[in-house]
Amino acid sequence: MNPADFPVQNLPYGVFSVAGGPRHAGVALGDRILDLTTLGVCGGLFASGNLESLIAAGPEVWSETRHLLTETIEGGDLHDHLVPMTEAVLHLPCPIGNYVDFFSSLEHAANTGRILRPDTEPLTPNWRRLPIGYHGRARSIVIDGVPVRRPHGQRGPGDFGPTRRLDFELEVGFITGPGLSLGTPVTASAAESHIFGLVLVNDWSARDIQAWEAKPLGPFLGKSFATTISPWVVPLAALAPHRVDPPPQHPPPLPYLTPAGKSIDLHLEAAINGTVVTRTNYRHLYWTMSQQLAHATSNGANFGPGDLFASGTVSGPTPDSRGCLLEITENGQTGEYLRDGDTVTLTAWAGGDGQPRIGFGTCSGTVVA
Amino acid sequence: MNPADFPVQNLPYGVFSVAGGPRHAGVALGDRILDLTTLGVCGGLFASGNLESLIAAGPEVWSETRHLLTETIEGGDLHDHLVPMTEAVLHLPCPIGNYVDFFSSLEHAANTGRILRPDTEPLTPNWRRLPIGYHGRARSIVIDGVPVRRPHGQRGPGDFGPTRRLDFELEVGFITGPGLSLGTPVTASAAESHIFGLVLVNDWSARDIQAWEAKPLGPFLGKSFATTISPWVVPLAALAPHRVDPPPQHPPPLPYLTPAGKSIDLHLEAAINGTVVTRTNYRHLYWTMSQQLAHATSNGANFGPGDLFASGTVSGPTPDSRGCLLEITENGQTGEYLRDGDTVTLTAWAGGDGQPRIGFGTCSGTVVA
Fold it and tell me: Is A182–B152 a contact, with Cβ atoms under 8 angstroms apart?
């Protein structure tokens, strides 16, 4: 935990408990948590000790609440409502309804295509036409710090055992607000009004299991054993000073995927046992959040409070900005996959260098046998 | 609705309301619903008007409840607690947590492989080694009778519009009970103790959208616009007299997929606008429910109350037993996909012909533009 992640300009939301007590809603503030459930300034919004009423209330209430909290923090005596973060246990910020994982990094798609299908074009013909995605297992999403068991599975024909190619994937996901019912596509221009906030996502992957199972219907057990998210949901409003144009898109996207909207200048790092193994940036992503949500609902699919839409591995254009070990090690040729006992820690921040730092805390997990 | 589906030997569970009133739990009994919430014989199990306490209670309570209901029905005066089914509105039997769809029919996999990839082996090399599956969108699961909008989407490069290849898929799914936490695989021999009951599933599919989007990560928007399930959850106990051996499996499955367990002699039909277009049987499925659940948890993935695991399209060995229009029409070559206004109705029953008929009711939906 880095207290510099959480200045008053950030105010990310989470759920915590102290000493086995009930869960309360809170915002991270330096090395403390402001207890929103005891603070009680936002009507009964946090009375139930979770974020569900806030998430379901929609963007106007998100904005009002943020303003109110900023004023309260800047003006008031918070002493009775500040909990040292070291004394708190953090929980999933909300029940994750449905989980979609995209594949929106051109560099990741191209690298994995080149490594796994060397005899074909690295990018499939659809890649530049639509933000490819698939559904992941929402139930196996866990919070920062939960150990991740090395999964068993079929590593090939007749070969069952613990995966030999356990990988992390450095991703960023957004959590949606109240949502829309079936038959109501979200326009790209309206998409961000449905985004409650962002979290870091480690989409743990067993590459041997995934490679063997995934034809023709995609990943299943190679991914479903665990997905880790960071505990603090960073509001999109906190990232407003850091919005940047996304990379140019060729061919031009279809009308329902326009306007592309903005990306975020968000520095991302992955470390194994404290050693940074990749430094990249969310701004490299080819497809934006607006395009992802517009695409995911273009067929009329519904979404709701607490649905998670993750970016897919965020890789950059340079070798030191690759977002997973499949790419970093060329599928085990130039380095090792994860070993038992390894701890993978993802971190992210925007700003810093004189500007307020908008940090995400950590998204970590240790591999156990 | 066919009253013959619901003799006292069936007792499938559902959730209903009358005239805009509150939801109650019930069992179907002929052309009536026995209101379990007002009946009150099972302690407070149905006091909340849903099936969630029952589903979460596990197999011993499922068995006790079934015995108690059978005795009550055979012995008592139920008059005040019987609601004519024509007066009731049926609702989803429980919140569907996570949704997995398998691909467990050899005939379906072989037919679709031959039709869609004519230059390759119809079955991928993994098909006979593991029950291939993927995650679907749980949030867009709807109940029998809800209209299904023809989805828009990318039908190919630069081509966005309503799908031209809207299909149904005739499937059977099982709903799990309390479940197990992360890191606890279910053995094949114990798998059925986690199955609360079965429903019919129509996994509506937009074949043009699916074909264009699905490489390399599988189906997404071609499926996520709607999945229809039947309203009555048929307990596995009701199907006990109809358990049969599954087809032989070659090569022999790996140990974690044994014993295969039993299949079900369950007749399945799909009709379009009242005309039956396919007659097949669940017993043709290559992979069993026990193998499906053992596989889905073999990597330690968790599951919980209300998770749905569907079979994939159930096709049989003959041309008139193909379970979807992709197969029946050879991808539109010998017939048409669904038109606006078409109503697809799935039905299923075991027994009959002198034995008590264990029916599933209907799983229907009308296509709207």
Answer: no
Residue B3 has what pLDDT? 86
Decide if A82 contacts A293 (C-beta within 8 A).
no
Tell me if A251 and B158 make a contact (CB, 8 A cut-off). Answer: yes
CA atoms within 13 A on the CB side of A270: 33
CB B300 within 8 A of CB B184: yes
Reported as half-sphere exposure (CB side, CA atoms, 13 A), residue B260 has a value of: 22
B216:A218 CB<8 A: yes
For range B96-110, the mean pLDDT: 98
Tell me the pLDDT band of B79, cut-offs 50, 70 and 90.
Answer: confident
* Strands B267-272 and B234-235, bridge-based pairing: unpaired
Tell me the C-alpha distance between A209 and A93, whole Å: 30
B69, B27 Cβ separation under 8 angstroms: yes
How distant is the alpha carbon of residue B243 from its chain centre? Answer: 17
Q: Cβ(B200)–Cβ(B348) under 8 Å?
A: yes
Residue B111 host element (H or E): helix B106-116
Phi, psi dihedral angles at B54 (to 5 degrees): -65, -50
- CA max distance for chain A: 66
Q: Is the sign of the CA dihedral A13, A15, A19, A22 positive or negative?
A: positive
Residue A242 Cα to chain centre, angstroms: 17
The C-alpha R_g of chain B, in whole angstroms, comes to: 20
Alpha helices in chain A (DSSP H): 36-39, 52-57, 59-75, 106-116, 207-213, 289-296, 325-328
Instruction: Render pLDDT for A112-135 as a digit per residue (tens, 0 to 9).
Output: 999 999 999 999 999 999 999 999
Measure in Å the smallest separation between the Cα of B48 and chain A Cα atoms.
Answer: 20
Q: CA-to-CA distance for B156 and B200, rounded, in angstroms? A: 31
d(CA A133, CA A289): 12
pLDDT in tens, A149-201: 999 999 999 999 999 999 999 999 999 999 999 999 999 999 999 999 999 99
Q: How many CB atoms lie within 10 A of CB B119?
A: 4
- Asked whether the CA dihedral B334, B337, B338, B340 is positive or negative, the reply is negative
Any residues with CB less than 8 A from the CB of B190 and at least 6 apart, and which? Answer: none
Task: Name the pLDDT band for A306 (thresholds 50, 70, 90).
Answer: very high
Q: Looking at CA atoms only, how far is residue A84 from chain B in angstroms?
A: 30
| DSSP β-ladder status, A82-84 and B170-176 | unpaired
Write out chain A residues lying below 8 Å of B298, CB-based. Answer: 152-153, 160, 221
Q: How far apart are the first and last CA of chain B?
A: 26
Q: Is the pLDDT confidence value at A1 over 80?
A: no
Chain A residues whose beta carbon lies within 8 Å of the beta carbon of residue B126: 154, 157, 212-213, 215
- Contact (CB<8Å) A214/B214: no
Give the whole-angstrom CA distance, residue A280 versus residue A267: 6
- Mention every residue, 6+ apart, whose C-beta is less than 8 A from residue A77: none
Look-up: residue for tokens 């695989």? B185
CA-nearest residue of chain B to A225? B301
Distance CA B344, CA B342 (A): 6
Which of B142, B158, B299 shows the shortest C-beta gap to A152?
B299
**Please, what is the average pLDDT of chain A?**
97
CA end-to-end span of chain A: 26
A9-18, B72-81, B185-194: which has the minimum mean pLDDT? B72-81
